[in-house]
Amino acid sequence: GQQLNQSPQSMFIQEGEDVSMNCTSSSIFNTWLWYKQDPGEGPVLLIALYKAGELTSNGRLTAQFGITRKDSFLNISASIPSDVGIYFCAGRASGTYKYIFGTGTRLKVLA
Amino acid sequence: DGGITQSPKYLFRKEGQNVTLSCEQNLNHDAMYWYRQDPGQGLRLIYYSQIVNDFQKGDIAEGYSVSREKKESFPLTVTSAQKNPTAFYLCASSLGQVRSTGELFFGEGSRLTVL
After folding, report:
1. B80 vs A2, B14, B46, B76, B84, CA distance in Å?
2. How far off is chain A from B29, nearest CA to CA, in Å?
3. Which end of chain B, N or C, is less packed with Cβ atoms under 10 Å?
4. Taking CB atoms and an 8 Å cutoff, what residues of chain B touch A1?
């Protein structure tokens, strides 16, 4: 099945640094979702995007729906140790119930 | 509290046995989903259901079966035909397309280990 290209696969950063990750698709989506997953837990929804060009924030998190509708970006500002986890993107095309997921970005924050 | 409840959290199975994972939601969502997650990998869709008494195969349905007799419930059976069933299983739900905001919510997951 289709999976989205998500990058980077993993990253180590220093506490206080900003983080950026992105997802790209070969298909056009009308919904982009970003999740964080802690070990042994279900993914938690961070941000939902519904319009091309839309920029949405949730605390230190900011996500954007790409203009081409084939990509999305997530930024985390001033990272803290509890930001550690796996971040997933997911997209859904118009006229379908199916969500396609990215392969995940594993974030590790060094205090 | 509104949410999605999966049980059991951990399950051990002997080879050749069928097991059923429970998923219940009280969000009044029409659509429900089952995903499989293997270590270090993303989520792969097993089955999804848009409405009661209807469901569709996802990308990796072989060796699995589901039912959707009630709106709140979408149990997943891992049959003995599934060759590599050890994995983390996630249930999810969304409002459904007609009145959807597009948001997909997950349960806490069930970890199945085959001995």
Report:
1. 26, 9, 16, 13, 9
2. 13
3. N
4. 44-45, 58-60
Residue with tokens 């930024």: A75
Q: Position B33: which residue type?
A: Y
CA–CA distances in Å: residue A49 to residues A21, A29, B11, B22: 15, 10, 36, 30
**Pairwise CB contact (< 8 Å): A41 & B108:** yes
CB contact under 8 A, A45 and B42: no
- Which tokens hold the place of A35? 């999740």
